[in-house]
Amino acid sequence: MTYIIQAPQQINSTIQLPASKSICNRALVIHAMAGCTFPLSHLSDCDDTEVIVAALRDMPETINIKAAGTAMRFMTAYLASTPGSHTITGTERMKNRPIAILVDALRRLGADIEYVEKEGFPPLRIEGKPLEGGQIEVVGSISSQYISALLMIGPVLQKGLELKLTGEIASRPYIDLTLWTMRQFGADAKWTDIDTITIAPQPYAKIEDYTIESDWSASSYWYEIMALNANRDSELQLDGLSDCTKQGDSVVKYIFSLLGVKSDFELRDRIAPLKLKAHRCTLPRLDYDFTGSPDLAQTIVVACCAMGVHFRFTGLATLKIKETDRIEALKRELRKVGYVIRDENDNTLIWEGETCEPTHEPIDTYEDHRMAMAFAPLAFKFPQLQINHPEVVTKSYPHFWEDLRSVGFIITEKA
Ligand SMILES: O=C(O)C1=C[C@@H](OP(=O)(O)O)[C@@H](O)[C@H](O)C1
Ligand SMILES: C=C(OP(=O)(O)O)C(=O)O
């Protein structure tokens, strides 16, 4: 399927963002470890959360986690520490996303895990059993999801867990989000040194009423829409977010303030409406390190090209092992609309304003929800923008296209 997208002149609407898949997936695994039987409410209906809901509910012999990285990593640690025999697998892409750092760490904690196909990658055969726990070192520079997965089982390990992280820590705000979620469920989980996290062997508490904030990563596409619409009469309200959030991607508020989008929360101390308004952007260039917020990179890269803001973005090394190689995907698809960006050292993207003749071919999405959502706002600049396989958005934001229609986008299916 291919969508043809036409953007509205002006936006005056309210959007209810989906629940944060990162918080949902943490809460679900912790909730299961706490032995809670009642379901969690207000979960996201995105694919990445639904695969965990189904896995925990049915616990089939073979668990297919599809394309969900967090689900693959969190469920691997959960299954390794919970009695039972399971194979965990996923999409072809998932079978090429590395998992050796997590498997090695779990084996050092006593886990029984075998690779079913390729050494270092899913699928995995796991014989779950109570694990002793203790002190281990883990590389922190490849994916924070390995660290989060280990931390979440910490309270149920006989000796608890002391995790020393080595190397530069990638996606660190997600580790803090894990610790915060664990503490909400009664865990004693904290940084005890600059590179060390300690989890006490103390069971999780059963929590009945748990509110899940909306997804700040999803809000980024609305910030981009407001920036590219650049109409002073437009105003957009986003519901479900909090100014005192623990989601690292809330830094989007700051980044887009530099690109002319003003954010105004009705209340500061809890979930409250957030109003966005666009002002003129006069920024000539933006340099930013995305080590802590990799999921925002595509949004900001596309927005800056469309706004003529030159950039040098660092901290992008982990983009190569996500839903697709996002560095290559960005370079290739931006050329179709006339922007020539280049990469350096496998972790940097640079744009000095170089352009090429646009081909106006449809944008390919590479089974990556964020490619579709980051490119859609380009419809403000390129009328009749086309996006291939728009259905990829279900990974994190199933009603993205309906929400776009509700604010005035005209979206038609190409015959
Ligand atoms: O823990 C999480 O919820 C996530 C961590 C990040 O992954 P990495 O730690 O692999 O960068 C992020 O990209 C992903 O979308 C969600
Ligand atoms: C990288 C992402 O997801 P995951 O790693 O959980 O598949 C993402 O949602 O951008």
From TrEMBL:
Q: What class of enzyme is it?
A: transferase
Per its UniProt record, what Gene3D superfamilies does this chain match? Enolpyruvate transferase domain (3.65.10.10)
Any one GO biological process: aromatic amino acid family biosynthetic process
Which SUPFAM superfamilies does this UniProt record tie to the protein? Answer: EPT/RTPC-like
Instruction: Answer whether the UniProt record assigns the keyword Transferase to this protein.
Output: yes
For this protein, what is the EC number?
2.5.1.19
This protein's pathway: Metabolic intermediate biosynthesis; chorismate biosynthesis; chorismate from D-erythrose 4-phosphate and phosphoenolpyruvate: step 6/7
Annotated ranges, domain Enolpyruvate transferase: 62-404
User: Which InterPro entries does the UniProt record give?
Assistant: Enolpyruvate_Tfrase_dom, Enolpyruvate_Tfrase_sf, EPSP_synthase, EPSP_synthase_CS, RNA3'P_cycl/enolpyr_Trfase_a/b
Report the catalytic activity. 3-phosphoshikimate + phosphoenolpyruvate = 5-O-(1-carboxyvinyl)-3-phosphoshikimate + phosphate
- Alphabetized GO MF terms: 3-phosphoshikimate 1-carboxyvinyltransferase activity
Recite the UniProt keywords alphabetically.
Answer: Amino-acid biosynthesis, Aromatic amino acid biosynthesis, Transferase
Query: Domain of life, per the record?
Result: Bacteria
**Keyword Amino-acid biosynthesis carried by entry:** yes
Family statement drawn from the similarity comment of this UniProt entry = Belongs to the EPSP synthase family.
What is the name of the protein in this document? 3-phosphoshikimate 1-carboxyvinyltransferase
